């Protein structure tokens, strides 16, 4: 699905973004909540207002999990196994939300990276985030 050069590009992008994980993750979550208000129901117990400690913390966790998966994409299923179980059996998140979030993450990356978010980077990241969402949803089958 991803070429060797795309995998290297994805790993490099996420390594570069890890230091600003809170900002990227919280921005993507806010974008998802604004675009798909139904997704807020899973966060009713948290303060999900802009720049809240809860939103920044959760956003950071998401981005760091994505960055970890980007290190070795061929092992994505193994890397995400604990998150698959938690989201499917404990949190019971509707797996459609993973796709919604990946679309919001693409927009956030485009906004954050500017000209560095080239068509090649966009295409590679779209493939990777689609795979990420699909792997998270595997436990639902």
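Sequence proposed for the structure above (141 residues):
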């Amino acid at each position: 699905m991803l070429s060797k050069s795309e995998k290297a590009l994805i790993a490099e992008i996420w390594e570069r973004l890890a230091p600003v994980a809170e900002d990227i993750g919280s921005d993507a979550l806010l974008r998802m909540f604004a675009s798909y208000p139904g997704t807020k129901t899973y966060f009713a117990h948290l303060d999900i207002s802009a720049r809240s400690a809860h939103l920044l913390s959760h956003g950071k966790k998401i981005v760091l999990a994505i960055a970890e998966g980007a290190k070795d994409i061929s092992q994505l299923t193994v890397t995400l196994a604990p998150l698959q179980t938690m989201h499917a059996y404990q949190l019971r998140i509707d797996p459609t939300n993973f796709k919604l979030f990946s679309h919001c993450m693409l927009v956030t990356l485009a906004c954050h990276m500017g000209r560095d978010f080239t068509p090649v980077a966009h295409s590679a990241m779209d493939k990777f985030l689609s795979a990420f969402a699909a792997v998270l949803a595997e436990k639902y089958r």
